[in-house]
Amino acid sequence: MAPQDTLSTAAQVTESKEKNMDAVSASNRSAARVLAMEADALQTLADKIWSDEEFSRAVELISAIEGRVIVTGMGKSGHIARKIAATMASTGTPAFFVHPGEASHGDMGMIVRGDVVLALSNSGESREMNDLIEYTRRFAIPLVGVTSRPGSTLGESADIVLQLPALPEACPNGLAPTTSTTMSLAIGDALAIALLESKGFTASDFQVYHPGGKLGQQLMRASEIMHKGDDVPLISLDAPLKETFTVMTEKGFGAIGLVDADGLLAGIITDGDIRRHISDDILSKTAGDIMTKTPKIIRPETLVGEAMGIMNDVTQSFRRITCLFVVQEDGKPVGILHLHDCLRAGFS
Questions:
Q1: Which of 11, 70, 77, 217 is the most exposed place for a label (fewest CB within 10 A)?
Q2: Which domains does the chain have, with CATH numbers?
Q3: Model pTM score
Q4: 253: helix, coil or strand?
């Protein structure tokens, strides 16, 4: 290849890179504009919610119903409605999604007295929702509308209107639902969490609805996987060391808990403690003579992840902990949690 051709090719590569950089820059600018518009919309919505009595009424209404929250919407609003229903259902508010089109062809039967309908439509004029709206009016089923137009069919029909700020969509044509669906999703999250807090929904309650996956694992308690009953290695303070060694060997945890006359955990003995106290007269001693008096313990409600953190504490590397006694508030041991139990449960 001639030098001139080489220069020509290099120039082409440079020109191509510059064009690509321009394209990436334009894309980044577009993305930043969309995110900024949606962030501004959310801030406007948040500012509005502070003094919105309708939002408080909606929370009170949904909290008081005996039935379910029926969330509905058409098109992109329908996708948002599905997510809102799923979030509510997982946070203690029974809810499910009903497609407005399918509702007109039989699914209306899913909605009964005692339920409340949460309908999403930015324009408030989705024709597919008219039958569903009429159904709620006919059977006196409470209707909460989420729309930017309170004077629309949905807005005029709803018992409560959660009005979205009338802001432009992030789409340059002002058509694709972007800003409006982001606000709808956010107000759904706000409702779900406000309901969660009003009901005192706890992490333990949350786990009931999330037994699987990473969330379920993160909320697992020591009481769920600990060894208990006769499996727990326990012996009295004044037990001879020979008997203590026998029980330790039988239980196989490499540790044993010592309890006083009241059944309270007074200390523990580990394999390491035995090695540190080996002497000619060791068998003449009692368990209490060589125990560690202030062992690390956990409560039954301690998260397994937290227990793993205690066992993996690098500051304790000189005395690696492989098991923890599980002790009640009254000081009585009720279980033992081994590192291997945590690993089998998926923790690391």
A1: 11
A2: 52-201 (3.40.50.10490), 222-344 (3.10.580.10)
A3: 0.64
A4: coil
